[in-house]
Design goal:
By secondary structure, the protein is α/β, with parallel strands linked by helices. The protein has nine helices and twelve strands. The two termini are 17 Å apart.
């Protein structure tokens, strides 16, 4: 009998975490040791936001270095996990009648591989990425994600990768120990309370949560992957936060595990 898989949101932060050993990356590695080994992974990354829904469908997705100005070893890093075309077709089936493109061009962006290189360092778990339709609002993403629920019973680990608080305009690069802004702390605390209580609708309608939310989520790209995870919670599932912290004052590294 297949184990029902948890679902996990990762606050991924800077791509340099891929080649760094710190409290965050060690906690990601611990998640990999403790989670049931998945048959494959579906990743929803903040860094694949486009017009229309798509899913990577190649057998060997390339490692995408979608950033600039970082050390050469980061730009040269390769995370060569296999793809899973059959899983891509399964996702398209679950999301029907919504049109889902089987993409042969994208690959794994750093929202996915900078975390998973610590969670599954052998790169031996097949991975596909699911693109977010950037023309749609938060409720669309939450409702779409709910259709992926059967995957949890098929040995598939669904992950989201972004940041609950992600304000780069106010982020202090290279200052991980900088005290977080008061508004960032308040919003993260409120969001955690809502997640634990199971009252997720305010998080779907996050624009209604006031100034703290708007400062924490100036653009939705890093926030929406969290909704994909919250939508897959079942009655009786526990909610835990295996990784905590605030980088540079305004980027939350919080991870959320459900189940």
């Amino acid at each position: 009998m297949t184990t029902t898989m948890p679902v996990i949101f990762f606050g991924h932060g800077t791509p340099v975490n891929a080649i760094t050993r710190n409290a965050y990356t060690e906690a990601w590695a611990a998640i990999g040791r403790n989670v049931p080994r998945p048959r494959a992974i579906v990743s929803v990354s903040a860094h694949w936001c486009r017009r229309g829904v798509a899913v990577t469908a190649m057998r060997q997705p390339p490692t995408i270095h979608d950033f600039g100005g970082f050390p050469p070893e980061l730009h040269e890093y390769q995370y060569l996990a296999p793809g899973d075309p059959a899983l891509a077709r399964r996702v398209r089936e679950l999301l029907a009648p919504l049109p889902v493109e089987l993409d042969e061009d994208w690959g794994l962006d750093h929202g996915t591989w900078s975390v998973l290189c610590h969670v599954f360092p052998k790169a031996d778990v097949p991975i596909i990425e699911l693109a977010m339709d950037g023309t749609q609002g938060a409720a669309f993403h939450y409702d779409l994600a709910g259709k992926l629920a059967p995957l949890r019973d098929e040995g598939i680990l669904v992950i989201g990768s972004g940041n609950l608080v992600h304000n780069l305009r106010l982020w202090t690069r290279g200052a991980p120990s900088m005290p977080p802004f008061d508004w960032a702390t308040r919003f993260e605390s409120h969001a955690r309370e809502l997640m634990v209580s199971g009252d997720v609708q305010p998080l779907v309608a996050y624009e209604t949560l006031g100034r703290d939310a708007l400062l924490s989520i100036p653009t939705p790209d890093h926030y929406l992957p969290l909704l994909y995870i919250l939508a897959l919670r079942r009655e009786g599932d526990s909610v835990s936060f295996p990784v905590e912290g605030m980088d540079g004052g305004s980027v939350s590294m919080l991870s959320v595990r459900i189940g």
